[in-house]
Amino acid sequence: MHTALTLTFSESIAQITLRPPEGKPPTLDYALLDQIDAACTEVESRSGELVAAVLRSASPKFFCAGANLKVMETINFNTIFPWVKRGHEVMNRLEALPVPVIAVVEGYAMGGGLELAMACDLILASSCARLGQSEAKLGLVTGWGGCYRLARRVGLSRAKDLCFTARILEAGEAAAIGLIDWSGTSTELEQHLAGFITAVGANSRAAVREMKAILATCGTTTIKENAEIEAIASRRCLTDGDAKARLDSFFAARKAHRTPA
């Protein structure tokens, strides 16, 4: 039995939901990686009409427990390379989607499950969430960019602590160190998510898309290179986006406000 994935669209939101077999946690295998990849293709094709994509689990106790044990039983010297490569391809594609991607974490996100969450732009978690980079317990290392993304979220020293000890963090500590971006009760989580989506939806989709692309380059470019990137993106906002219409509306409203009755 494999974890399945459903992709639905509602009110400009793409909902990507992991659906494990009854009584089991969501786990990752080649079939699910392929489904995530296919979901990315569909989200990309509709990105112009979308505000955001939300990745979550149908399980109340697990976001994702990591690799499927059936896959782990087949891991050897010959099979580990394609497994790691495929995971990287899918996580990188999820990260590069041209809309904000939010991981909603309730319950456990461990090993590859945490790597999946970190491939999203933001991680919002309920207070019952538990998160850990636990690969060392099985004698393995992160295989899908976990060390890379973890260090960028929490800093190198904390990433070393979490990877070396493989300890599981409660949501409060995870939020305090920056591993997750927000934590609260399940009800508060849904309210916070709705508020975030409303705020993003009020802005230009083209501008948000360009901002995401610019931010993705900031760790590897100089400020001089950034000037060129921002200039090109600004031009696209004016020619391909709705910047001109929004500016015209802004100045018209400002003029009307100043005009005596």
Compact overview of the structure:
This protein has 261 residues and is of the alpha/beta class. 50% of the residues lie in helices and 17% in strands.
Description:
It is a single chain. With 261 residues, the protein is α/β, with parallel strands linked by helices. It folds into two domains: 4-201, Alpha-Beta Complex (2-enoyl-CoA Hydratase, Chain A, domain 1), CATH 3.90.226; 205-258. The chain has eleven helices and ten strands. It has helices at residues 30-45, 69-72, 80-95, 112-118, 146-154, 156-165, 171-176, 186-201, 205-217, 223-239, 243-258, and strands at residues 4-10, 13-19, 52-57, 62-64, 101-105, 108-110, 122-126, 130-132, 169-170, 182-184. It has a six-stranded mixed β-sheet with strand order 1-2-3-5-7-10, with helices on both faces. Strands 4-6-8-9 form a four-stranded mixed β-sheet. A hairpin with a 2-residue loop joins strand 1 and strand 2 (13-19). The relative contact order is 0.10. The mean pLDDT is 95.
